[in-house]
Specification:
131 residues, globular, 5-stranded mixed beta barrel
Length: 131
C-alpha cells in the first residue's frame, strides 16, 4: 500500500458519480512543486468511494485549501499518466476568500471553524458529519 498525504487547492467542485452499484465522489487537487521560474503544479485526481464521500461533496469546492490522505495509484489514459488518490480522510484548511461559502451550508455548523478559518485551523470532518 502506498499512503500519501497532500495539501493543495481544489481545482474543481466535487462531483458524485455512479460506478456500477457504488457512488464515488471525485475532485482534482493541485499541489505546488518547486519555486521561482521552476515552479509547477502537480495534479492529483481524488476519489472517495461510498457514503462518506457523498456527504462531504457539498463542502469541497473550487479554490478551497484542502489536505487529503489516502492510497496513491496511477492510471494511463491516451498516453498520459494520471496520479490518483483513493481518499481515506479529508481536512478542509480554509477556503477561497471570494468563494462565497456559507458556514450554514453544512447543516448548521457554525463553531468558528468555517471556510475562512486561519490556516492550520482545519476542520476534522469526522467530528462534523453525522454517520
Amino acid at each position: 500500500m502506498k499512503q500519501i498525504v497532500i495539501a493543495g487547492n481544489v481545482g474543481k467542485d466535487a462531483e458524485i458519480r455512479t460506478a456500477g452499484q457504488n457512488k464515488v465522489t471525485g475532485w482534482p487537487v493541485g499541489v505546488d512543486d518547486g519555486w521561482g521560474d521552476n515552479k509547477t503544479t502537480i495534479w492529483f485526481d481524488c476519489n472517495w468511494w461510498g457514503q462518506r464521500g457523498e456527504k462531504v461533496a457539498q463542502y469541497i469546492q473550487k479554490g478551497d485549501k484542502i489536505t487529503v490522505s489516502g492510497e496513491l495509484s496511477k492510471r494511463e489514459h491516451e498516453g498520459k499518466t494520471y496520479l490518483t488518490i483513493n481518499v481515506t480522510d479529508v481536512k478542509l484548511q480554509g477556503g477561497n476568500s471570494g468563494s462565497g461559502h456559507s458556514q450554514q451550508s453544512n447543516g448548521g455548523y457554525d463553531q468558528g471553524g468555517g471556510y475562512d478559518a486561519p490556516a492550520g485551523g482545519g476542520r476534522d470532518l469526522d467530528t462534523e458529519i453525522p454517520f
